[in-house]
Design a protein that fits this description.
- The complex is a heterotrimer of chains A (667), B (135) and C (283).
- Chain A is of the alpha/beta class and 667 residues long.
- Chain A has five domains: 124 residues, Rossmann fold; 171 residues, 3-Layer(bba) Sandwich (FAD/NAD(P)-binding domain); 76 residues, no CATH class; 165 residues, FAD/NAD(P)-binding domain (3-Layer(bba) Sandwich); 63 residues, Alpha-Beta Plaits (2-Layer Sandwich), CATH 3.30.70.3270.
- Chain A contains 18 helices and 34 strands.
- In chain A, helix 6 crosses helix 7.
- Chain B has 135 residues and is α/β, with parallel strands linked by helices.
- Chain B has a single domain, classed as Lumazine/riboflavin synthase (Rossmann fold).
- A four-stranded parallel beta sheet of chain B has the order 2-1-3-4, sandwiched between helices.
- Chain C is α/β, with parallel strands linked by helices and 283 residues long.
- Chain C is globular and about 60 Å long.
- The chains are: A alpha/beta (667), B alpha/beta (135), C alpha/beta (283).
- Chains in contact: A-B, A-C, B-C.
- The interface between A and B is large, with 44 and 42 residues.
């Protein structure tokens, strides 16, 4: 039997000025199960709270209604008051008779008073059904998983590890470094990209708290914040990295030499046993199984020896001084436990082959900006010499086309890829440094130089490197006399211009890496139509997702440059460290609860939950029923409204309570 | 229109946006008619269509459901589901004799105190003109 | 046609592919049909199929999730099977559907089969079952334009007229819950009408409670009712229940392009949403 105490607050004159408090008390005393109705000048103050506390104890109250300001103001305050009186803090209800009554009906005291009485009647009806609740403690596995070994993932991993927690970094490629390893210099400082990146790569590899898994991918994720279970597939490298010293004899002597290098974007070649670039971490090779002769031979044997016999090469094995080649190494699937996951899956450049007016990839001297980075790079396929891919000669006139595939609603991405204006300016400056005779023409729509020192950097390209900026989107590139003619409108002059160039560089847009959508589905994290990961709130929660415990950072969330990626990596690391700084997670008890007898297993709630907090289980009598994950449920109530047999209910806002609030207005 | 007829409106307001918007109307001391009784729910998606049906059958003259603007739901998706449910419920109740002007779905953000008071005033005025329910 | 059904039933029972074949047999009045449960191959000869086979046999599948069952299904009944599959109430491998191409059902009154088709059959747009393992009869192309003129007629009345119309209809309701018992979509173990905590309706026969019952049940069937028409057929006081359900069917089709039971795979409108939903409410 409920023993309800109702405390009506004056709030000075804020409430008492418009509402007849004695009349309210008189009406409240007659309400069902109300054993005490008193008023306070300021309920939230020290004496006010003391009055509530003493009243609870003296009158043996087991439910409390405070008629005062909005629950959004002081619900948590008064919950603590109840707790200090020895009463469960969830046995409280607040009637909003200030913001939603006295302050908006100050013109008519009679109606305001009548409304206040009704609002309290509703709160009394609701509080009867409140139940005492206890929060639960859930343990946390203090290990973090970082998916992606580019600069963002590296920064996040280092920061988490330096905070004292174990990290596992999973990278799909044979090496970490990501896109930044492919760059020559970075804007606006013109730092050598590899020089600033490789020390971090080495720090990561040598950090005692970080375990690096390259040539591996995340396959399946189960569980919830603090308690994830992740399946990682480790692709067989066919080289035992514990024995390998990275001496390099194998990749120097491998007879299969002419495989187009992925790292050099087709401008260079690599052998079948290889490291992607000289400063790769780990500096130990993997064998490309689709091109290795001996593996082709083994497959030929296993398939029944039909057709031509591939050579039984094994040169690497014969030459390896430590016997590190391991032909029988198999793909492996490991399951690991983590408390938090950071997604830093990075980006790739967009394909431009449907831009037939730019050759669609058929002209060898039309290259992408990233390919130019490889040419400029001292460790690249040309040793840092800028040459035309067609004939190896040095270009004297270079044309740049910006926004290829970006800001294009019809055939590309509608968004701006953010970094291209800056790196094109950088290319103009760098090319001038390589060869003072080079003249650069940059076709642009706008120049976006919003970061620190970015505007000055762009002006340097114009004033010092003498780059000519032409405002127009080129309509066509066509070959003429062993050169390429770029035909465009110059919008500022209002004329058609043509630039005859030796080399054309396209600033292609950037998009999330291949498989980003599958990764998002595996993690059950939202992603948008362009496969960018979706953050919990674009302004205020940029590194969190709707899924507690899974954080996102870097270019996999949207186009961004290196300083932003590094900042986000650190931001995600702080969130992880904050999570791990507690010993257990406290779950809110005001969540959805399933009545297993009523549940018909239609699974509509499972489909509808925005947080994937409802799953299903099979009972011993082979029925499917819904099951709420208490750590994930956010108490939105969507499932309750969807449930036809009313099998699931929401603590704190049960069906009974809301109906009682409505019905109390007619009783 | 009967003199002295005061319509009774039940409002289901979501805690994060519309309830806060109603609070802001109070903080800004913007007056509106006293006919609305507000029930706080965590999300507009919490509102079971049966609450609406029951409210009308008990005798409510009008029902208001207010939630966050689409895209701003505190729980990401709740208001999209509410929108779908009410898109079917409102014409259905109209078909059965409860005029659709008596049942409103509004998006009110936490900063729209003035707008909230205008909605309540407008709704109350409409219901007064329509008069008491005949069914 | 009937021989094909009987032979298939016999074949399934002899091979023990199913434990039971649910079909139709002649009732004791020698005129109408009634549901039949055949467990032995010899019983297959009881099976019939004609225009008196009005029952939606998929209702009997709701408690046979783990038993292997065959069912004789008209197109409307086959939509019921899809509904159950959609809502995880059935395992596909446990149901063998003997689909029957249907030219419509008729009512029997005063010991005579009426000459015109049931109202629901006049609006029917699928004469071939939408899901089946074995088809009896030649498939017929679907007639495509939906006809909701009966609903529009009521929509065009004034609110007062509409209110009066439905008050009169619902006033007759005696809350026998026959409509619920026979409905394929009503398979909950505990119905909201019988919940005590909270008491949504209670047992009293009164206008308000009748109104909440019929409105609530119809809304629980929104975008789920497969228009088998059984509710209206069994109502002892002739409430035109299909006129209620068809309003929601029309709106589901127009707002969401969704037809219940036509496919076992599409997500029902309430399980999902589109950010750009333009549904004529809110902004």
């Amino acid at each position: 039997m409920a023993r309800i105490g109702v405390f009506v607050c004056h709030c000075g004159t804020n409430i008492a000025g418009s509402i007849n408090i004695p009349k309210v008390l008189e009406a409240v005393q007659k309400m069902p199960m109300v054993v005490l109705a008193i008023d306070n000048k300021y309920s939230c103050s020290e004496p006010g709270q003391a009055s509530v506390r003493e009243s609870i104890i003296e009158n043996d109250l087991n439910r409390v209604v405070i008629a005062a300001c909005s629950p959004r103001m002081h619900e948590s305050t008064f919950r603590k008051t109840l707790a200090s009186a020895g009463l469960n803090p969830y046995l409280l209800e607040i009637a909003n008779i200030r913001e939603q009554c006295s302050w908006v009906h100050s013109d008519n005291k009679e109606t305001a008073t009548a409304k206040a009485i009704e609002l309290i009647r509703m709160a009394v009806a609701k509080v009867i059904r409140h139940e005492p609740l206890q929060p639960r403690q859930v343990p946390i596995t203090k290990r973090a998983l970082v998916i992606g070994g580019g600069i963002t993932g590296i920064q996040a991993a280092l920061d988490i590890a330096n905070a004292g927690y174990e990290v596992v970094v999973v990278e799909r490629e044979p090496t970490i470094g990501g896109r930044m390893a492919q760059l020559d210099k970075t804007f606006p400082t013109l730092d050598c990209s590899a020089c600033i990146l490789t020390p971090k790569m080495v720090d990561l590899a040598q950090h005692p708290k970080i375990r690096l898994m390259t040539y591996a991918e995340v396959k399946n994720v189960k569980g919830f914040i603090g308690n994830f279970e992740v399946e990682i597939s480790q692709k067989a490298k066919k080289v035992d990295h514990l024995k390998c010293t990275g001496c390099g004899i194998c990749w120097q002597k491998c007879p299969v030499k002419k495989i187009p290098s992925e790292f050099d974007l087709g401008l260079g070649t690599r052998p079948a046993i290889y490291i992607p670039f000289a400063q790769a971490v780990p500096p130990k090779p993997v064998i490309d199984r689709s091109n290795c002769l001996y593996i082709k031979y083994l497959n030929w044997v296993a398939a029944g020896q039909e057709g031509k016999k591939p050579p039984e090469c094994r040169a690497c094995e014969k030459l390896c001084p430590t016997g590190a080649i391991a032909w029988d190494q198999a793909d492996d699937l490991v399951t690991e436990k983590f408390g938090a996951i950071v997604v830093a899956a990075g980006y790739q450049t967009c394909d431009y082959s449907h831009y037939q007016e730019y050759g669609g990839g058929a002209y060898p001297d039309v290259i992408t900006a990233l390919q130019l980075e490889r040419l400029m790079s001292a460790s690249g396929p040309t040793g840092g010499e800028i040459i035309r891919p067609s004939d190896g000669s040095h270009p004297k006139t270079v044309a740049f086309i910006c926004c290829v595939g970006s800001r294009d609603k019809q055939r590309g991405k509608p968004y701006c890829s953010k970094v291209c204006c800056m790196y094109t300016a950088k290319h103009a400056i760098m090319l001038k440094e390589h060869d003072p005779e080079i003249q650069c023409y940059i076709f642009y729509i706008d120049v976006r130089a919003g970061g620190k020192d970015f505007e000055e950097f762009y002006l340097r390209a114009v004033e010092e490197a003498g780059a000519t900026y032409i405002k127009g989107r080129p309509a066509k590139i066509y070959p003429q006399d062993n050169k390429l003619v770029v035909r465009s409108e110059d919008a500022l002059l209002g004329k058609v211009v043509e630039v005859t160039a030796d080399l054309v560089v396209l600033a292609t847009g950037i998009e999330p890496s291949v498989g980003a959508d599958q990764l998002a589905q595996t993690l059950k994290v939202s992603y948008d139509t362009y496969n960018f990961m979706v953050e919990a709130h674009p302004k205020l929660r940029p590194v969190e997702t709707q899924t507690d415990g899974i954080f996102v950072a870097g270019a996999c969330v949207g186009p961004r440059d290196i300083p932003e990626c590094v900042a986000q990596g650190s931001a995600a690391a702080v969130k992880v460290a904050a999570l791990f700084s507690q010993d257990t997670l406290t779950t809110d008890p005001l969540i959805a609860v399933v009545n297993q007898a009523r549940c018909i297993g239609c699974l509509l709630c499972v489909a509808i939950c925005p947080f994937k907090a409802i799953d299903y289980q099979t009972t011993r009598d082979r029925r499917l029923i819904a099951q709420v994950n208490e750590s994930l449920c956010k108490a939105c109530g969507l499932c309750i409204a969807a449930c036809r047999p009313k099998a699931v209910d929401l603590r704190g806002f049960t069906n009974q309570q809301i109906l009682d609030e409505v019905t109390s207005l007619w009783l | 229109m009967a003199i002295g007829y005061e319509p009774r409106i039940i409002g289901f307001l979501c805690n994060w946006c519309s309830y806060a918007g109603a609070d802001l109307a109070g903080t800004s001391r913007i007056a509106y008619p006293p006919n609305l009784r507000i029930i706080r729910v965590p999300c507009s998606g919490r509102v079971d269509p049966l609450f609406v049906v029951k409210s009308f059958q008990l005798g409510a003259d009008g029902v208001l459901i207010a939630g966050c603007h689409p895209g701003d739901c505190h729980y990401a998706e709740g208001n999209y589901h509410a929108r779908r449910r009410i898109a079917l419920l409102r014409p259905f109740l109209d078909y059965l004799g409860i005029e659709k002007q008596r049942f409103r779905l509004e998006w009110v953000s936490a900063s729209e105190g003035k707008r909230f008071s205008e909605i309540v005033s407008d709704f109350t005025e409409t219901l007064k003109r329509m008069g008491a329910r005949e069914t | 046609m009937i021989n094909e059904i009987r032979n298939k039933a016999k074949e399934l029972l002899e091979a023990k592919a199913v434990e039971c074949v649910i079909g139709y047999e002649r009732a004791t009045d020698n005129l109408t049909a009634r549901p039949a449960f055949v467990y032995e191959p010899s019983g297959a000869d009881r099976l019939i199929f004609d225009e008196t086979c009005v029952h939606n046999l998929s209702k009997y599948l709701t408690n046979r999730r783990h038993e292997r069952t065959a069912i004789v299904a008209k197109p409307c009944d086959s939509r019921g099977v899809n509904l159950l599959l959609n809502e995880s109430q059935l395992q596909r491998e446990n149901v063998f559907i003997i689909g029957v191409v249907c030219s419509g059902m008729k009512r029997v009154r005063f010991n005579l089969i009426e000459s015109s088709l049931l109202t629901k059959c006049q609006y029917c747009r699928q004469h071939t079952p939408v899901i089946y393992d074995f088809l009896v009869g030649e498939p017929v192309a679907e007639t495509t334009t939906p006809d909701y003129s009966d609903v529009t007629e009521i929509e065009n009345m004034t609110p007062v007229e509409r209110g009066a119309l439905w008050s009169e209809h619902f006033a007759r309701c005696i809350r026998c819950y026959g409509c619920r018992q026979v409905c394929i979509g009503c398979y909950c173990y505990e119905c909201f009408a019988e919940e005590l905590d909270p008491l949504w309706i209670g047992i009293r026969i009164a206008p308000q409670e009748n109104w909440i019952w019929n409105t609530g049940r119809a809304f629980h069937l929104s975008a789920r009712c497969v228009a088998c028409g059984e509710c209206e057929r069994v109502c002892p006081v002739n409430i035109p229940l299909m006129l209620v359900n068809r309003k929601l069917e029309k709106d589901s089709l127009q707002l969401f392009g969704f037809e219940p039971g036509v496919s076992a795979e599409t997500a029902p409108p309430f399980a999902t949403f589109k950010k750009e939903d333009n549904l004529g409410i809110g902004e």
